[in-house]
Design goal:
single chain; mainly alpha; 179 residues; 0% strand
Length: 179
């Protein structure tokens, strides 16, 4: 509510020009925004209220879903690019609407938390640089769930190791590098 009010006071209910520019065009952000526009039209038709703030938040959620899917499919390069775009988008939103980051930290939805935990389970399939970039865009509560997912993946890897093998090598790889 605070972020939506701030948006209304500062920009008269419209999105900041820099954010509006990012949401238009042909980038993945713009394509995600087009999907969100349809969702918002459907929500309006169903009698549900949405704000320009929701457009930013829903666009982030669509990008999160796309990124998660790409990592699960092993399309790390495409996922890495979308993470960079999403991070740039969120940095701009946080800069233009200071209460936006605060709202994201406080109110990550159930599906966002579930996605973060599920993505954490993919930690051994992602290059370290990708993990750092991905985690940098998560809210505090999403980071906590990502860590829990990563812990689950580590425990599962250890449990799946044959009793006779060195569990640390199974977890970290032959040279100490996570596989």
């Amino acid at each position: 509510k605070k972020a939506a009010d701030e948006l209304n006071q500062t920009y008269g209910g419209a999105l900041p020009p820099k954010i509006e520019q990012m949401l238009s065009g042909e980038t993945s952000i713009a394509k995600a925004s087009k999907k969100v526009n349809q969702q918002m039209l459907d929500a309006k038709e169903a009698g549900l209220e949405s704000t320009p703030f929701d457009r930013i938040n829903y666009t982030k959620q669509v990008l999160d879903d796309q990124i998660s899917k790409l990592y699960r499919e092993g399309a790390n390069n495409e996922a890495r690019i979308k993470v960079a775009l999403k991070n740039k988008f969120l940095q701009e939103a946080d800069s233009e609407i200071p209460s936006f980051k605060e709202a994201r930290d406080l109110f990550a939805g159930k599906s966002q938390l579930e996605n973060a935990a599920r993505d954490g389970e993919l930690i051994f399939k992602m290059p370290v640089e990708d993990v750092k970039a991905y985690v940098s865009s998560l809210s505090k509560s999403e980071k906590a769930m990502y860590i829990l997912g990563g812990q689950k993946a580590a425990l599962q890897r250890i449990e799946d190791s044959p009793v006779v093998s060195d569990a640390s090598k199974k977890l970290l790889g032959r040279n100490g590098d996570i596989e």
